[in-house]
Amino acid sequence: MSESFEEWLTRYQAHLELEGMARRTVEGRSWCLGKFIAWARELGIDSPEGLSLALLGDYRRHRIELVNARGARDRIRTVNQHLVALRDFLRVLAAKGAVPEALRSAIALVKEPRTLPKGALTHLEMMKILDCVPGDTPIHLRDRAILEVLYSTGLRRQELVDLKLPDIDLEGGVVRVECGKGAKGRIVPLGRAASEWTARYLRSARPALVGRREDGGALFVSKSGAKLQGNVIREIVARWTKAAGIDKPVTPHTFRRSCATGMIRNRVNPAHVKDLLGHDDFSSLSSYISLEIPDLKEAHKKFHPREQDEEKDDGEAGGVPAPLP
C-alpha cells in the first residue's frame, strides 16, 4: 500500500528541517501543501501515486482562478507561493522515487508583471518618524532604538525580534544575525546613531523593563520584560508613523526598503546592499530600488550621448540653437 500524502508531508517537513530551513518557511510550505492535499482528496486522490501532468496542470489553473475569502483572486505572488511549495514537494518525491521524474518540473510559475517598486520613504520622511520619538520613558527609548536599528541595518522584522544581547556589538558597530531567511547568518554594520540609541536603551530602559523577572536574553523586550513579538514591532512602526504625520502605509519592511533605496541613490555599490540585506543574488534588489523621475531625468541628461551633444552645441553657440532652414 502506498504512503498517503500526510505521511509524505511529514517526511518532507523533516527534510526541510535537515536542510536548515527556517521554521516559518517550513510552516508556510506545509500550509500551502495542505491546501493542495485537500484539493486532491476531493478528487479521490489520497497519495502521490495518483498524480499526473494533467492533474498538476488543473491545480495550477485552480490556484490562478480561485476566489479567496475577500471575493477576489489571489495576487500572482501568492499563487506562486503555493506553486513553489508544490514544486519543491514534487522534487523531494521524485528523488525518493515516489513520483515520476517528469513531475519534478511539471508546474510552471505564473509570470509576474514588472511593476515599479513602491513603499520606500525619503530620508526626510524617515527622520520625521525617528525624531518624533522622545527619549523620556523606557518604552520610548526602546521604540527609538528599534526604529533606528531597523533603518540603519535593513533587518527583517523577524531578524530584529530574534536578536539576543550577545548579537549586538556597540563598540565594533556591528550586529550578528544568527539565523536570517533561509537559515543564513550574516554580520551587518550598525550606524553611529543606531549604536548611540541602542546604548541608551540598554543602559536606561531595558533594565527597568526586565526588572526582577527572569531575563531571557532578548535584545528588545516588552513592558513585561518578555521577548517582543513581530506584531508588536509592526504596531510600534505604525504608531510613530502616525505621530510623525506620515500619511502613507509604513511597515517594518518599509524601513528595510528605505535603507536599501537610500543607499543605492547615494551611489553605493549594489553588492554591498546585497550583502547587507542578506540576498543570494542581485535579482532581489529590484524589490527595494526605486528610481524616481528626477533621478532618471538627471541620469538621462548626464549620460545620454544625445544630451551630451546638445550641451556641447550649446556651449559652442552660446546657448542659442541654430535657426531652422
Q: Major β-sheet, in short?
A: 3 strands, antiparallel
Q: Tell me the CATH superfamily of the largest domain.
A: Intergrase catalytic core
Work out the number of β strands.
3
| Total DSSP helices | 13
Unreliable stretches covering 5 or more consecutive residues: 319-325
Describe this structure as you would to a colleague.
This protein has 325 residues and is mainly α. The chain has 2 domains: 101 residues, DNA polymerase, domain 1, CATH 1.10.150; 165 residues, Intergrase catalytic core (hpI Integrase, Chain A), CATH 1.10.443.10. The chain has a 3-stranded antiparallel sheet with strand order 1-2-3. A hairpin with a 4-residue loop joins β1 and β2. The longest helix is centred in the first third of the chain and has 20 residues. The chain is globular, with a radius of gyration of 25 Å. The N and C termini lie far apart (89 Å). The C terminus is likely disordered.
